[in-house]
C-alpha cells in the first residue's frame, strides 16, 4: 500500500486531522505525520453553534508527529494530505512545506486538502487554473489564487481532492481513496 504524508501543526482541526489518518490506516496505507518539530501537535475542535456568526474553537486532542518538515523527503511518499483548521495559515510560509507541496503537484501525485488546507497550495500559486472546494468563507481567497471554487463535499481535479470541512469527510475520504488507489473519477 501507499505511504501518505500528512502536513499539519498546532491548531489543526481535530476531525480534519485524525479522521484521514485513521481512514488511511484502515485502508492499509502507512501514514506519516509531519509538522514543524516532532513534538505532538495540539489540535482544536471547531463546531457550529446557534448564536455564533463563525465557528467556535476549543482545545482538542494531541496528534503524535513522526517527522519534522525539514526532514521530509517527499519522493518517499505516494500522496499528501493537508488538514484544515488554523495550521495551514502558518505552515504555508515554511520553506520546507513549500518544497514538499510543490513536489506533489509537479509530479501529479494525489493531494488531499480539507477545509482551510487549500490555503497552502494557494499561497504557493499551485491552484491557478484548478478547481477546489474549501471552507466556504475562503471562496474569495481561492478565486484570488486563480482557482475555481466549488461548494461541494468531494471535489476532484485530477489528482487533487478537496472538501469544505469535517462534515464532508465521508465523501472526501471515498473520493481520496479512489484517487489514491488509481481509480480516479473523471474531472
Helix content: 25-40%
For this structure, what is the CATH class? Answer: Alpha Beta
The CATH superfamily is identified as Class I glutamine amidotransferase (GATase) domain
Could you say how many structural domains there are in total?
1
Mean pLDDT: 95
Summarize the helix and strand pattern as letters.
EHEEEEEHHEHEHEEEH
* Spatial strand arrangement across the major sheet: 5-2-1-6-7-11-10
Q: What is the structural class?
A: alpha/beta
Main pleated sheet: 7 strands, mixed
Number of helical regions: 6
Could you tell me the CATH topology label: Rossmann fold
Choose one word for the global shape.
globular
Strand share of the residues? 25-35%
The count of DSSP E runs of length 2 or more, i.e. the number of strands, is: 11
State Rg. 15 Å
The CATH architecture would be 3-Layer(aba) Sandwich
How does this model look, in words?
The protein has 187 residues and is of the alpha/beta class. The protein has one domain (3-180): Rossmann fold (3-Layer(aba) Sandwich), CATH 3.40.50.880. It has 6 helices and 11 strands. The chain has helices at 14-26, 87-91, 95-106, 119-123, 139-144, 169-180; strands at residues 3-7, 30-35, 41-47, 56-63, 67-68, 79-82, 111-114, 131-132, 148-149, 155-157, 160-163. The strands form 3 sheets. A 7-stranded mixed sheet has the order 5-2-1-6-7-11-10, with helices on both faces. Strands 3-4 form a two-stranded antiparallel sheet. Strands 8-9 form a two-stranded parallel sheet. The chain starts with a strand and ends in a 7-residue tail after the last helix. 48% of the residues are buried. The model has no long low-confidence stretch (mean pLDDT 95).
